[in-house]
Amino acid sequence: MGRILSYIMFGFFVCTAIMSVSVLHSKEKLNINNILFALVCIGSSIWSFCFGFIWIQESPTVAYYWRCAGMVGTFMYMICAILVIARWCGRDMWWVKIIELFPFSAVILYPFLMQKKNTVYHMSSPIGMTYLFTPSIWNTLYDIYCVGCAAGLFILSGFLVKNGERKWERVTGIRLIFCECVIVAGMLLDTIMPMFGFSAFPGSTLSQFLGVLLVYRVYLFVNKNQVKLENVSEFVYYSVKLPMLIYDYNKHLKIANKSAVDFLKLSAYDYQDVMLSKLFEVDEEKISYGGNSKKVDARCRANNAHCRLDINRIGDDFGEIMGYIVIIDDLTDKIRTIEELEAARRSADDANKAKSAFLAQMSHEIRTPLNTVLGMNEMISRETESDQIANYSFYIKSAGETLLGIINDILDLSKLEAGKTNIITEDYNLKFIVNDIINLISLKIKEKGLRFKLKMSKDIPMFLHGDALRIKQIIINIMNNAVKYTQQGSITLGIDWEKIDKENIQLIFSIRDTGRGIKKEDIDRIFSPFERAEEQKNHLIEGNGLGLSITKKLVSLMNGKVNVNSVFGEGSVFEVQIPQKIVHDKNGDNTVSLNMKEKGKAYHIKAPEAHVLVVDDVETNRIVVKELLRITHINVELAESGERCLELMSKKRYDIVFLDHMMPEMDGIETLRHIKAMKNSLNEDTPVIVMTANAVTGAKRAYLSEGFDDYISKPIGYIELENIIKKYIDVK
Ligand code: ADP
Predict the structure, then answer these.
(1) Rounded to the nearest whole angstrom, what is the distance from the C-alpha of residue 526 to the centroid of ligand 1?
(2) Contact at 8 Å (CB) between 67 and 119?
(3) Does the CB atom of residue 715 touch ligand 1 within 6 A?
(4) Ligand 1 mean position, distance from CA 695 (Å)
(5) Could you tell me whether strands 463-466 and 128-133 are parallel, antiparallel, or unpaired per DSSP bridges?
(6) Is the CB of 482 under 6 A from ligand 1?
(7) Residue nearest to ligand 1 atom 19, measured at CA
(8) SS3 content of the chain, % helix, strand, coil (to 5)
């Protein structure tokens, strides 16, 4: 019988040893609970192994030593079992901590309990070698220890049954109580019975194994009810809405989740081994599974949907390919949305283009009659003897010019907003820009009785590369404002620079006025289109609120910035910084001629020998030029079309040809091409000047690049007209 008991115990030893290895070797990350449970199994296996030797011994001394060793396993089992179950209960309560600490008293008890005198070993039939406890305080304490541990386990399990928040916790409690009953029943046979003179039968060794098995089941049960990857992966796999396919390394389909079965219209039981190319329009060979994951766009054969396949490689423990997880993303809706957005963007673009075309057209159309209005008005002012009529004519002129300003600004802004304004850079001499600005603005300054100061840094590099035309436009805008909003005092234009690097400088313009200033709260607003500060007072001052917003957009197109410092009631400083390239840093002559023109009696050129041809399809436009030039005694001939122009030019030499752009049939550009192509022409060197209502900023540059010699915009001012003629013919 002793042998049978031993073999059974060795069997237990093997089982518990395997259990401990499996717990420690599980895929899950090791945590304290796993380790404790593995220690319970190890304790159990030591216990079974050592006690297994007792029953087959013949020497009481050897049996004694085996029991000493086995008891280490017993105590280890007790301590760890209580710790595991206490952790399942939660360890916040003080009494749980006491129950946890209690089994550690074995550390003190063990050396005294294991004194030889406390147990008597003898052979007993039919068991074989067994033992009896001699009456001693240590044996009594050991019994108390066993009862205490059992009570602790019952209390913890009872607590779980009563207070477990989740059902699985309460079920765990019940299962634990059951397994504790088994252990206690076994303990009676070798812990309590030897106290009463009965030889020990290894009941607790047998029951502890059952206990471990039961606790192991509880352990698996507890684990199954925790949020862990292995518990939820199946759930995730089957419940997620994204269709998922799992292929083996031969690219044969092995698993498809429910969403995939539905989406691909697979038969739930018959999808095994289907290749990816059977389900999607993909070339199996072309899908290189080189990296760990790959995205492939393909059309689904079952429902024609546009899909993105996210193919992820899964490796085995040896780093070789185990298979592939393919996650299917149905892009059909997204693609439809993108297409709709694209269509919306296209139609917005078209609308924007239509708006720009409409504005360009409108500006052109308004300019044409305005040309007549202003041209004829000029004739009225020249020919009238009456002061009253001259006064009316002055108002027509000023209103016409305002209207022109508005058209220019709206056109500029709409081009900027449509992103159609290009910055065209060229080499230029800063001196000429400053000259032009001053010449344009000086008359207005003088008329208003303001003083003008120019503060130009001495060492500033004069030969620069950038968009001179836009820079001029920006500074003139700001200076015009300074004049408009200043009633007395002065306007100062400062021009300074800072070095950025060897090739670039920051050009800094500052325009200071002693005008009305801008309130702090208005400063951000004034850069938005159609926003004007002090609307009430402003209505007397001409303006449309577009100038600064155009200015700001132009400055940022050139990677520059505008700052305003203003004290309300005292004046403002606008500072514009624009980076520019240096062409060469020779300082050059930076003396700027302050050509403050007086508004005196109009001076007109005289050129009775000159012959000028004016080509325009609109009769009034032709008449305006003819009338404006009457005072100059120039011989003006008129042509109403490109064809007529060519005809006249083939017969006669002209000193200048003014050519309209927008004409029906042959337009100005085409006519120019024909003129240039004329062989042995009388007009080989005749300058051809475009005379057009297309006056957007930059138009001049465009016409010059077409081959025109010069540009004049409609409405035509007589000063510009005479100035341009002066450039090409000798006048008196
Ligand atoms: P506007 O055609 O009205 O002058 P802007 O865009 O050029 O349009 O200017 C916007 C507003 O900024 C103006 O209406 C004016 O209130 C204010 N402003 C601009 N420059 C000055 C200045 N130098 N002094 C005082 N106010 C100014």
Answers:
(1) 7
(2) yes
(3) no
(4) 23
(5) unpaired
(6) yes
(7) 481
(8) 55, 15, 30
User: What pLDDT digit, counting tens, does each position of 4-28 carry?
Assistant: 877 888 888 888 888 888 877 766 6
In the block, tokens 């439809």 appear at 336
**How far is ligand 1, taken at its centre, from the CA of residue 481, in Å?**
6
Query: What is the average pLDDT across 550-579?
Result: 94
User: In b/e form, how buried is each residue of 17-36, taking b as 16+ CB within 10 angstroms?
Assistant: bebbeebeeeeeeeeebbeb
Query: Tokens representing 404?
Result: 């022109």
CA-nearest residue, atom 23 of ligand 1: 482
d(CA 70, CA 55): 12
Burial zone of 124 (CB within 10 Å; 0-12 exposed, 13-18 middle, 19+ buried): middle
Among positive and negative, which fits the CA dihedral 644, 647, 653, 659?
Answer: positive
| Cβ–ligand 1 contact at 231 (below 6 Å) | no
pLDDT in tens, 163-174: 877 787 788 788
33-42, 151-160, 224-233, 373-382: least confidently modelled range: 224-233
For helices 94-101 and 137-163, the axis angle rounded to 10 degrees is 140
Per-residue pLDDT of 496-549, as tens digits, reads: 999 999 899 999 999 999 999 999 989 988 988 777 776 666 666 667 788 899
Cα–Cα distance, 313 to 248 (Å, whole number): 10
Rounded to whole angstroms, the Cα distance separating 643 from 536 reads 54
**CB–CB of 645/639 below 8 Å?**
yes
Cα–Cα distances in angstroms (integers) from residue 398 to residues 168, 403, 609, 712, in the given order:
92, 9, 34, 20
